[in-house]
């Protein structure tokens, strides 16, 4: 079972979703924090802790506090669509300068327009 923990760590380093069980809670890499993302369907991610200081994440955390409050157990919960969360993380990983002056509604709009371009025509 030890090798599956290593595979999960490698997947997380590549930006993949974490399917780690609760027994793997201690497997969070140094400098990262475990977050649960989503409202109905929840996925676990190990997020670089410094991203939590970004204004867009601060806005997401405020929304999450409104959605979930502070009384829940386990990892930090973020109330947004999983795809939007991944889009934000990828934007920050690329050091895209537009991320520093973007508001949360702008991020969501940009994400939706990017997805609309990739949908097949009907």
Automatic annotation (TrEMBL):
Provide the GO biological process annotations: response to auxin
Q: Which domain of life is it from?
A: Eukaryota
Classification lineage: Eukaryota, Viridiplantae, Streptophyta, Embryophyta, Tracheophyta
User: What species is given as this protein's source?
Assistant: Carya illinoinensis
Known Pfam families for this protein?
Auxin_inducible
Database matches in InterPro entries: SAUR_fam
The protein's name is: Small auxin up regulated protein
Family from the record: Belongs to the ARG7 family.
